[in-house]
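Record pair follows.
FIRST:
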Amino acid sequence: MMAGGGGSAVAGGPALHIPVLGRSAVELLQPRQGGVYIDGTFGAGGYTRAILAAADCSVIGIDRDQTAIALGADLVDQAGGRLTLIEDRFSNLDAIARDAGFAAVDGVALDLGVSSMQLDTARRGFSFRLDGPLDMRMGGEGPSAADVVNKASERDLANIIFILGEERHSRSVARAIVKARTDAPFETTRALADTVASVVRSRPNDIHPATRTFQALRIFVNDELGELATALHAAERVIKPGGRLVVVSFHSLEDRIVKTFLVDRSGSRGSSRHVPEVDRPAPTFRTLTKRPVTADDEEIAQNPRARSAKLRAAERTDAAARAETPSNLLPDLPSLADVAGGR
């Protein structure tokens, strides 16, 4: 997620965006000369620019949004052969690195959530403040938010909105959506936002009544939590010993997944004298942030979206990557295909 502003020049080009917690992220990533780094969420190129400016290194930028990749063409030219852009999901980052000729990399950076560029484009359908088609797909493929809203059962809608949006009025929202779609299917963000606002009341200075519902649908449509869990395991496989993983999240569910994964992989779970000792696999990561790094008042004043940002980082050990991911990373929800199919 990006904030507007200036920054260091990279290969003769100005930095058009500064990522939230960008300076802290690059400091923890520690780019070095000759290193290879993956920016798994290229977006507007903020992290990539900062990494390229920090050292004479190379970056593989990944984004599932073809618009982001197309807009990054100028930066590829400016980087003088040090940047490769790939349109793909960051959950495939280890395979992408191999296809680019790198069996291992020196670091991975992930800046989660929706970008300002996506939010500010009405036709993408992410924003309740801008009227546009109810889409929300980052990559343009698969069922859209309209498919989910118009076909999901009331129970599934309520669960999705409650779990992924942490909306305590989820049942009322789901009931209102199902009632409204009997008259006409939802096609626009404005129609959905107005329906949600009819049952979720807000006070002055509160967030928009539709904020949590839109967040839940976006996360669900793009399988953002599943993508994150898979990407963390892929990073474990592809980062060299001594290389680093840096993740910035903007939602408690995202941060919980990152924290749970790193606790599991670092072996830092507390022991109890009441529970027998068990053999544990060798740690694959060493945690660098005992507590998440958060934005200071100055950054929050410049960009209010930074208020919810949390950064966690870890360094790869020389232990072999594990075959399995922790079993408790993801919430129990139906699949997108089942929901959009009306099953």
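SECOND:
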Amino acid sequence: MTTWQDASQLQLDRLRRAWRGSALPGFLRWWGGELSAFVPVRWRAAFAGGERWYAIERHADGWRLRRAGETFAVGEAGDADTAEHRSAVLARALDEADPADRRIALVLPPAAVLRRRLVLPLAARDNLRQVVGYDLDRQTPFRADDIHFGVRELGEGGPEGRFVAELAATPRAGLDPLLDELAGLGIHPDRVDVAEGPALAGVNLLPPARIPRRADRRRRLNALLLAVIVLLVVACMSAWLHNRAVALQAMRDEVEAMRGDAARVKDLRQRLTDSAGASGFLARKKTDAPSVLPVLEDLTRRLPDDTWLERFTLNGTGQIGFQGQSPQAARLIDALKGAATIGEPSFQGTIQSDPTSGKERFYMQAKALMPKPEPVAAKPAATPASAASARATPVATASTAPAAAVGQKEASRANEAR
């Protein structure tokens, strides 16, 4: 055998030992036996399979064939008969078994076999036959070239780091003629074993070169069926994955369509929100901003007649800023104290004299105290013309009050000029 075959055979031997050493084979045998009790006898006979062992033994007057484990013979071929007759007798006896299941063991008498119990290290388990073959000269009284031997691992527990095996050896001079004679009768044994009553000992003395090569058609059929099963499983899985992919793509298309609808709805909602916000912007600005007219009214009433303003500002936070001229600007803070709409008046920067008018130029800041008006709900039936007039009314009022204040200031300046 090649190196690759040796390695593969070594791996197979390891797997076989692991399988035999596990509890699964015994469980499967028990389970199969329990289930077979429910199967009719005819069906059991029709579907019965597996190896069927026959034991062939050499006696003084000829060959005797029996089933392994049984004592009565199923066929006998005497030396007095011709070789053709003996071959036909043995062939008829073996015809009861399927050739694919039929196995033949040449059984040697115990006296013709040397058997020894060996204790070996665990490292020798992977290549047991080769390891024992190196030590045949010490374990047997024969030379290694003069004997055929077999070795098997026993199920006994050995010392730590070791295991127990059995060596069986027989002289070549006694075994080779028997094998040649059986070959002439058309029988090629699958093993050479030792008798233990009607059963077999389980050790194989057959040389590896004489092991028959059998074409196991059932194994090939099983391998073909296994390949078909694998292909069918792969096909089923592929079909399942394809169906899932198709369903997933359909779901994605539906989600994309719904996403487009959702985007359009979101856009419409945003446009509606923007429209509502734009329509309420002016109302909110009017509601949030402080009223200008009360502040201007209060400021006009409290400032002296000889004081006028050049600039007035009121921002949305209620901060008031105004700049103007007055003969005595320092008195303006006292004048603005107690105002209902103006609070915290203060000067910003310094008071400076204006050489043109002879008055003091000032810049003041204050805070609008006028409370914000309550928001008025918009009438649903308001027309665009009425809304425009409503928006124009505060502007006109606000512009009228500053005009009156400016006219009053001009009159005061005319009186001073006189």
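COMMENT: The chain has a mean pLDDT of 80.
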